[in-house]
Design goal:
The chain is an all-alpha fold. Helices cover 79% and strands 0% of the residues. It has helices at 9-39, 46-76, 80-103, 114-133, 136-139, 145-161, 167-173, 175-196, 209-213, 220-252, 258-270, 272-282, 284-305, 309-332, 339-360, 369-399. Helix 6 (145-161) packs across helix 14 (309-332) and helix 11 (258-270) crosses helix 14 (309-332).
Amino acid sequence: MAKGKQVLWLQVCGLGMVQGAIALSWVIYNFYLPKLLVQFGFSKSLAISLLVLENALAVFMEPLMGSLSDNKQRWVASRFPFIMLGVLLSSGLFIAIPCVVTFVPPTTVLKFILPPLVVAWALAMTVFRSPVLSLLGRYAMPKSLPMAASVLTLIGGIIGSFRIAANDLLLSFGPVITFAFGSFVLLGSATVLRFIHPPQVVSDEPVDKHQAESPPPISFPALGSIFILGGSFAWGYRTLLDGVSKFLKLDLNTDNIQLQMVAFGLLAAFAALPAGLIAKKIGNRKAMLAGTGIVALLMLLLPLVGANIILLVPLAISSSFILNGTVPFALEMVPPDRGGLGIGMHFGGVGLAMSIFGSVFNQPQAISPQLAALMSAVAFGLVLGCLVYSNFTHKKQSIV
């Protein structure tokens, strides 16, 4: 990184494109998976089982791939062999999913091609997600990580916000064209990032062979904090959205709340920009602590006051501080050369939480709004505990 430069904004924007492509791929996949399974002769409920399995596999795959990319970084000064391999696999398998359903006859034998194919795609996504997001630690100085991460949060949040309202648009193109578009966006964004990735950002080559063979020390309590925080946040935000949507339906006496949920998601996405600036000034963990405490309190108040704008606006803004801080938190809790492992532990925790959630609540629509709000508050309470504990262990390590 150039001297005096806090953030490599061109590279961060390129990374944001990849983050957006990942979010778009999952939006398409989650929307079409039940429909493709039914079209190929399976029950719609199989989609839930496959998502549970994919999340369970991610618990191990994300940290593994992140750690392997760390090793690759030390030896050849680049994570891109892992990143491009995963992107190529994901792009190819992503196009193959609708092609199998469209062009292969669903006979007794051939129909069982589809479930392994979709699981293989999900595994291919784990090959590069942690390695590519760990590049954020190379594109920004430690103090500026939240500010750089706000670009990723904004792009991912915008795409995620429209997943509810984009159903008709996705249907209008059909699965083959939609999946092909998602595949090309992913491949194109990764190619752009590779092109603009400056060599000096990853020029931390080991000075001798002994250094290459000796990985930096890892704090297992720090990895545990990343893992638990990732899982708690995923559970908390999942139930937060569920609780908000159900209380909106009750308060407005209608099931048509797409516009309100899109507005909520967009507010959280755009709030990431000032959240990143504030986190840079006061510190990422302090910003996350404040945001987490407010979110937990507001979720406890949600059943009492309802989903009115007075509560929803601060809820969206406060949650943005946590959304935007998770990746910087994972990076700052590990040595600089172990960023892939740190990000992998975060997504491993997310995978475990979502796997358990899908197994326990295979019919999320049956969860009462009051229970959703309570579960969210408890989950964010765990996030708060992880942040306090991590702050204590971080100070302890600094003293040592």
